Amino acid sequence: MGPATDGATGSVLVERRARAAFVTLNRPEAANALSKDLVGALESVFAELAGLVKRGDDLRAVVVTGAGKAFSAGADLKERRAMTLEQTWGFLDELNHLMNAIAAFPRPVVAAINGAAFGGGLELALACDIRIAADSAEMGLTEVRLGVIPGAGGTQRLSRIASVAAAKELILTGRRVRAQRAYALGIVSDVVPAANLADAAAKLADEIALGGPLAVAAAKRAIDEGATQPMADALAVEAACYQEILASDDRNEGLAAFGEKRPPVFKGR
Ligand code: COA
Description:
With 269 residues, the protein is of the alpha/beta class. The protein has helices spanning 36-54, 77-81, 85-103, 120-127, 154-161, 164-173, 179-184, 197-209, 213-226, 231-246, 249-259; strands spanning 6-9, 12-17, 20-25, 61-66, 109-113, 117-118, 130-134, 138-140, 177-178, 190-192. It is built from eleven helices and ten strands. The strands form two sheets. The protein has a seven-stranded mixed sheet, sandwiched between helices. It has a three-stranded mixed sheet with strand order 6-8-9. The protein is globular, with a radius of gyration of 19 Å. The structure holds coenzyme A (COA). The site of coenzyme A (COA) has 17 residues, from helix 2.
């Protein structure tokens, strides 16, 4: 098995659990801060997982989480201090590339926020499709307190996921909020005891795996591509995504299974 199915790429662990891949940021000694190496390793892992999907692997969901106490403390500020402005700008570009690859990943990506998620760490979670958090987790886009602004999608993704009001509250103050408050703001969709977080994420992945993989992927694209468009254009995006799966075997299987009162067996074609 390659590293994207079970193993490690740099500071990222990958473990296959049923039809989900658990991707774990593994720099606990640095609160999983996003160093260049860690970002590069995450890019490789997601590219490899996307390759598996393309080759017909039955991967249905990815769960991203952190090893140790933190989810991710954001940009590696020790590394950042030694970077020139040009290097910093280049790194931001790379970080955005990673966030966009996660956002466009052909299967749902779930962030299981096990602990602190600040700055780029929260932006990473915001690039995922669904976020759940441990009750002990804290999160925030704290960049203004460092004299900068979120630069890996935070200002745009937080306002779209939660609200402009929530984004302004968190980003303009740079404050840290607990999981329950993040839930109230619509940033995370569930808060569970820390000890149950991995199981809750696995359960969510299993639930996603009940759906036809082509349908789930098309629905993700329809939602994402339509979200920023006027209603008429957005509905056209939905129609185009529907049309792609209209003639699929999975659709026939879904209808047949309903008629025969049995669970469907989707093949992703
Ligand atoms: N970049 C680089 N190293 C970081 C880091 C970051 N963003 N955040 C934490 N670390 C390092 C700490 O310096 C410490 O290393 P050390 O043992 O060599 O001193 C190690 O990670 C553990 O952090 P520590 O603060 O001792 O652990 P903690 O459990 O008490 O707190 C955090 C964890 C994440 C809550 C806390 O470290 C924190 O608030 N970090 C800054 C988060 C932040 O503002 N990020 C910037 C966003 S733009």
